[in-house]
Design brief:
Chain lengths: 269, 432
């Protein structure tokens, strides 16, 4: 590829970077989530490095092929997106490790949820790789809703909600809420891909609006945030251990089903 | 002094890289082919890393001659001699000293069976059996300090580590190997890497953590090497580069160490691991994704939790960024001849597609894109995002925090373990 390809790839992408889906849109969503999930007991972390963690996060969200963004000349894959989305959390964990007692308690809580979610997501990646032999975002969308569902249930521990809830204040709160929005974006991408063709067939009079994808994506994002808020409210006072066990069991069941489906397709071939 | 030396060696490596596509030198029983060129570049970088870490000693300089012989000689007897002497000089434990002798034994055994002592002899391939591959793999594990895995790290001298990885590349020029060995190498490499990573998390001192991290990178370089595809070889070579960078970084943990030895996109270590993931995916070994991802996150976390030294380590961080973004150029310029040379022994399951102005992607046999990182584009977008971030971020009200009271790491681990399902042993404490 030539220099022109580079110029058009960067030129196509930088508007996504500043406006929609990342940039200002992500910042606004982060501020909204900050209000939605706010708690009183919050820990303050030194604001050092908060913006540096945001850079990969914003670029990763800009690379998501959400409806209305236009095609990227150079697409990302799920592995890169996943790691870039978690950059603010990794930096916050590092600061908390070196910090005072209350910050270290925050670290333990944050790691507890993350360590419940990470193996489940890793296993989804393995099943995806096994079936589609590809981790590009376009290919992973083909796997259907069980994979999307496993990914969605991991959001509760991954985004520190329910019994795993722990909040920071100041710049880190905004950074981590923007991370929440980014992770929700991946699930919305999955759901839009599954639902749009079915909805368009079900409501032929509104097919044009639905196939455009922007309205379903916005509604799905709203629905997802509401669902997460509900789970968060219900689970706040629950035991971390019990919810952790339930989550792993639920995830294992769904994964087993997904693996069985994959195997059935493999045999049918 | 070390900066001058490092700079000089890097310059030499750079000049070599620039000239490389035009050099195919032969004489005095030596032959600088594609693989040898790739290894000579790694050798230059290993010396630079050693100079930076202030570990460049007379023994290493003395070993340079046999090392070069083992890398470039055309005659199997000379290769065996070079490998044996290098490992005897550079080994830090008796197993590491034995590793080169084992490798030498394999070459002599193969040559004796085939009655041919040249790499280019066509009869060599007919006599290559699983036993040869087994001994080469075990010698690599010994040489890299991965077997037996104990509680004290024994990081290999980088020149020795490179020499131990080399036969696993050369073997493709000799003949085809069983796919089972790909699984064995992946299990050995990934398992050892996870163990080293866990020891790095668990170690008390920064020096030990650094040594375990370097071992983690060497072990990861071993994992994809026998997958018999272009993507696997590219991944393994890039992971060796990442190990050398980690060696230079872990000598003094600069504040930016996470960029040069951790795995954040789009730095060189991340790109190398990502190439490994692509090779595993297209090679039909998707399970390898899980350990590779754990190594990605684990190395980053270990480095982030280290107490940073007064240094910044800007040069190495820049090198990691430029190396990661410029990896397509580096591979096209330097590794493509190696791939052409070994191409006959490789399968089509996993081919890297280099877009010098965009980034990298890995494709499988049906030209379906498996993984893709537009590293160059990401680099440009990172700069735009960072500039906007610096302009916007004016939230600097730092509250005073009392850092005098802290949990000790064992207490921290215990509290964490109590709260994890299937791991906890006692009731969680209520004070959280």
């Amino acid at each position: 590829m030539t220099f022109d390809a580079w110029r058009s790839a960067v030129g196509d992408a930088w508007l996504h970077l500043l406006l929609y889906p990342s940039g200002l849109a992500l910042l606004l969503l982060g501020l909204v989530l900050m209000r939605v999930f706010a708690t009183q007991a919050e820990v303050t972390l030194s604001p050092r490095g908060a913006w540096a963690g945001l850079v990969p996060l914003v670029v990763a969200v800009a690379g998501l092929p959400l409806p209305g963004t236009g095609e990227m000349r150079a697409p990302l894959d799920l592995l890169t997106v996943w790691l870039a989305l978690d950059a603010p959390l990794l930096l916050a964990l590092a600061l908390a490790w070196r910090g005072a007692l209350d910050q270290q308690w925050w670290l333990i809580k944050a790691l507890t949820g993350w360590l419940v979610a990470a193996p489940l997501q890793g296993l989804v990646l393995v099943v995806l790789g096994w079936q589609t032999r590809s981790l590009t975002l376009q290919a992973t969308l083909e796997l259907g809703w069980p994979a999307g569902l496993v990914w969605a249930i991991t959001l509760v521990p991954l985004l520190q909600l329910g019994p795993w809830r722990c909040e920071l204040s100041g710049p880190w709160a905004l950074a981590l809420n923007m991370r929440r929005a980014g992770h929700c974006g991946v699930v919305v991408l999955w759901a839009v891909h599954q639902l749009v063709p079915r909805l368009a067939a079900w409501l032929p009079s509104r097919a044009a609006v639905i196939e455009d994808g922007r309205l379903p994506a916005a509604l799905l994002l709203l629905g997802l945030i509401l669902a997460l808020w509900g789970i968060d409210r219900v689970g706040r006072s629950r035991s971390v251990l019990r919810w952790g066990r339930a989550w792993w069991l639920f995830g294992a069941l769904l994964l087993g089903w997904l693996a069985a489906q994959t195997l059935a397709q493999f045999v049918a071939r | 002094m070390r900066r001058w030396l490092t700079g000089g060696l890097l310059l030499l490596a750079g000049a070599w890289m620039g000239l490389a596509p035009h050099i195919a030198w032969a004489g005095f029983g030596l032959h600088v082919d594609g693989v040898a060129r790739a290894w000579l570049l790694l050798g230059c970088l290993a010396l630079a890393a050693l100079a930076w870490a202030e570990q460049l000693n007379r023994r290493t300089l003395l070993a340079l001659l046999p090392w070069t012989l083992a890398v470039c000689a055309l005659d199997l007897r000379l290769v065996a001699f070079g490998a044996a002497i290098t490992s005897a000089l550079l080994g830090r434990s008796w197993l590491q000293r034995c590793a080169g002798w084992l490798q030498a034994g394999v070459w002599l055994w193969l040559g004796w069976q085939a009655h041919a002592w040249s790499w280019s002899a066509p009869t060599l391939g007919a006599f290559l059996t699983s036993w040869h591959v087994f001994v080469l793999m075990i010698s690599a594990a010994f040489g890299l300090g991965l077997l037996p895995l104990g509680r004290t790290p024994c990081a290999p001298a980088p020149l020795l580590a490179l020499l131990m990885l080399l036969p696993l590349f050369r073997i493709y020029a000799v003949g085809p190997i069983n796919w089972g060995w790909a699984v064995a190498a992946a299990l050995l490499g990934a398992g050892a890497a996870l163990w080293c990573l866990w020891r790095a998390v668990d170690s008390a001192t920064a020096a030990q953590k650094g040594e375990w991290l370097v071992l983690t990178w060497w072990a990861t370089a071993l994992a994809p090497v026998l997958l018999a595809s272009e993507a696997a070889l590219v991944a393994s070579w890039s992971l060796a580069l990442a190990a050398l960078l980690a060696l230079a970084t872990c000598a003094d943990h600069g504040r930016l160490a996470v960029l040069s030895a951790g795995a954040l996109p789009p730095t060189l270590p991340f790109m190398a691991l990502w190439l490994g993931a692509g090779a595993a995916l297209t090679g039909g070994l998707a399970v390898l994704l899980l350990p590779l991802w754990l190594i990605c996150v684990g190395t980053t976390l270990v480095l982030l939790t280290l107490q940073p030294s007064a240094r910044w380590g800007t040069g190495r961080a820049l090198l990691a960024l430029v190396g990661g973004i410029g990896l397509p150029w580096l591979l096209e310029r330097f590794f493509s001849t190696t791939l052409q040379q070994l191409g006959a022994g490789l399968s089509p399951f996993g081919r890297p597609l280099l877009w010098p102005w965009i980034g990298l992607s890995v494709r499988d046999a049906g030209s379906v894109t498996a993984t893709t990182v537009p590293g160059v584009v990401l680099g440009a977008l990172f700069m735009v995002a960072a500039a906007v971030g610096v302009l916007l971020w004016r939230w600097r009200s730092t509250p005073p925090t009392d850092t005098s009271v802290r949990l000790r790491p064992p207490t921290l681990w215990r509290l964490l373990r109590q709260r994890l399902p299937l791991v906890q042993r006692d009731r969680p404490s209520d004070d959280l």
